[in-house]
Amino acid sequence: MNNDVLSSLERERSALIPPVLIGSAICVVAFIMFIGGIGMQNFGTILFGLLLAVIGILYFMLAYSPKHKAYEKHYKDSIVTATFEEAFGKISYLADEGFSKDMIRETGFMQLGNRYHSEDLITGAYNGIRFQRSDVLIQDHRSNGKSSYTVTYFQGRWITMSSNKHFNFDLQLIQAGFGYTQKKSSIFTRATDRRHKVEFENEEFNNRFTCYCQNDQEAFYLITPHIMEALMNYTALVNGKVMIGFHNNLIHLAVETGTDTLEPSLWSPLTYEKDILPVKNEVTAITSFINQLHMERNIFGGTN
Predict the structure, then answer these.
(1) Of 64, 86, 71, 67, which Cα lies nearest the Cα of 5?
(2) Which strand (E) or helix (H) includes residue 141?
(3) What is the pTM of this model?
(4) What is the pLDDT of residues 214-253, one digit of tens each?
(5) Helix (H, G, I), strand (E, B) or coil at 285
């Protein structure tokens, strides 16, 4: 990653600021004239305010939107794709696509609320383990008729990693502080889907993680002392609380970061620490998990 790329992106970013300011100023003036026209009951002022608003919106669409899309594409091609391919070789990167809500729902690991968005879907392989990662935002918008507010259930990265082993029973590990999970431990949950809490001999692990499983034998088979140590080490490396789920032949790793990653800055100059290092951290979130658990050679297996 050389300085020429960052300098080129910075020039593109700087060129986006004037159209935003000009378009915003036009819309503000239009709004003032519209409100003033209503107060004075002056139809001409109201009409001019509306016309000015249309001009502002059109200016924004023509002068800003195409340049912003080109800027984002340049960033994702030269920074995101380049960083991931440096670590993993050839990848598939679909910036506008992500995990479906149905996929998350089918795992039964998270509460889903009524708002869902996912983007920046990257597919690749590392040490024989096929992975996919995507930014995921899960929210619940609530209104009582007089006021409304939005509760964020999850915002961060969701990673799936393949396994040659088919997990016969679901298992879920929730780090302390990771909220809004769906544990399926209620007596009202269908018996075949119900999970229950289980503890291990490692007290430190039990303090850091809560485990819900459908079968104790499989839980103790999967979560060995080595895996417990590896997961505790992993949480020290990533920025955010984690939830790990075993479902069918996939391991799901959700990391609550509270941010929308893999997006370039607009209002502040691009820097290595702010715009490149977070992308490298996304790579580390995948490689560290696979390395810490030795997924390529333990009971989880990998792809051929």
Answers:
(1) 71
(2) strand 129-143
(3) 0.86
(4) 999 999 989 999 999 999 999 988 888 999 999 998 999 9
(5) helix
